[in-house]
């Protein structure tokens, strides 16, 4: 049996993100300082803008490799909804539209009853959204990929593998 590799002195991204999340819960803040809904919504808007490049990258990879370039990506930017504020990145394609099933989507949202923002897919979620720098947003790429892979798997399970062009 081999020994595990030595631990890094710094926590990996996912652990650091959770530590930021837990600190906010402990302190009643978001981003270590924001306490009002207005201030938290401002941080959410900044996080959504920072998350845009990795969200587009993750959806673009699905489109290129699994949908064979047939997808259409739409990003809403931050918008107010009856449930709070959200930013949504959606990927549709012909087979999905013909089957009349939900598209793949990444949803950053800050619900009116929430302490802070979250990130989710169409069928999977919730992840705390504690992104305050471009580096932190880029480090979310594996999470975004996992959300999309799980959602696409669930879509195939619901329908059939043929909804994914590369699988035929």
Give an account of the 3D structure:
- By secondary structure, the chain is α+β, with helices and mostly antiparallel strands.
- The chain has one domain (36-167).
- Helices cover 43% and strands 20% of the residues.
- It has 5 helices and 5 strands.
- The chain has a 5-stranded antiparallel beta sheet with strand order 1-2-3-4-5.
- α2 (37-65) packs across α5.
- It starts with 12 loop residues before the first helix and ends in a 10-residue tail after the last helix.
Kindly list the characteristics that best describe this protein.
168 residues; alpha+beta; 5 helices; 5 strands
Topology:
Layout: H1 13-27, H2 37-65, E1 72-81, E2 84-92, H3 94-99, E3 104-111, E4 118-120, E5 125-128, H4 134-138, H5 141-158
Antiparallel strand pairs: 1-2, 2-3, 3-4, 4-5
Helix pairs in contact: 2-5
Q: Compute the number of structural domains.
A: 1
Rg of Cα set: 17 Å
Largest sheet: 5 strands, antiparallel
How is the largest sheet built, in terms of strand order?
1-2-3-4-5
Detail the poorly predicted runs: none
End-to-end distance: 42 Å
Which structural class do you get from the secondary structure elements? alpha+beta
């Amino acid at each position: 049996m081999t020994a595990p590799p030595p631990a890094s002195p710094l926590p990996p991204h996912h652990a650091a993100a959770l530590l930021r999340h837990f600190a906010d819960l402990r302190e009643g803040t978001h981003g270590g300082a924001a306490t009002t809904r207005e201030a938290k919504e401002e941080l959410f808007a900044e996080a959504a803008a920072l998350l845009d490049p990795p969200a587009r990258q993750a959806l673009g990879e699905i489109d290129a490799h699994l949908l064979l370039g047939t997808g259409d990506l739409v990003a809403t930017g931050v918008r107010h909804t009856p449930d709070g504020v959200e930013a949504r990145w959606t990927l549709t394609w012909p087979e999905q539209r013909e089957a009349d099933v939900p598209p793949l989507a990444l949803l950053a949202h800050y619900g009116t009853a929430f302490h802070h923002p979250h990130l989710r897919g169409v069928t999977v979620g919730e992840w705390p959204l504690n992104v305050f720098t471009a580096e932190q947003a880029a480090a979310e790429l594996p999470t975004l990929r996992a959300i999309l892979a799980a959602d696409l798997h669930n879509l195939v399970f619901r329908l059939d593998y043929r909804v994914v062009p590369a699988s035929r």
